[in-house]
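Handoff note, outgoing to incoming analyst
You'll be picking up this chain. Sequence as last confirmed:
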Amino acid sequence: MRTQGYIFYIGKVLLPVAPSSVNISHKNMNSIINLINDAEFNMLKQEGLQEISFKFMLPSQRYPFARYLGFYQKPSYFLNKLKNLKKRAKPFQLIIIRTYPNSAQAYFNTNLKVSLEDFSVEENAEEGMDVYVEIKLKEFIDPRPKQYIANADGTVSTQNQRWTDKVESRIKEMKYGDKIWQVIRRETGGLDQLETVMEINGISSLTGFVTDKLRLW
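Most recent structure output, in case you need it:
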């Protein structure tokens, strides 16, 4: 059930098994106005908030295809994290990293500040003890004043700044004599992400592996 090339973070939590699909909905806030002659006029407005939904698995045991930051965590660990996000009622980051197979190069990323709208838990005897979660998120934009832009023709237009849907990959330049595990510990503050970084970079063994660039996430 492993999803190659996808890494999902909900807040600071890495999903052990990436969803097989994700739905990102883009909706406008257009409205219909009825005119005096009974005709309809479609008033076009700016794009509304993006809505994101997907389903993911929480393994009941450690599988070879599952990712963890350090060591295996039970489904209850992730469910408690989701409950806390809902109770806090504060936005958090949704990060989706898409990489080429066996490569550190990311070809498309998503980085959105979102709110947790809803989630449901599914347990199915046919799936053993594994737990499935369906989650719905909504883009969050900080309230901020509009930016006024003076145009060349003398008119003035406004622009709302939105959160970017791109995230810069953290690429570390390796120097002669650098050891991969030392770089990971220095840049991340420990070795909890050693296994994840090795998988992202297609590293199967630390012995004899040489690279000039190391992707940290």
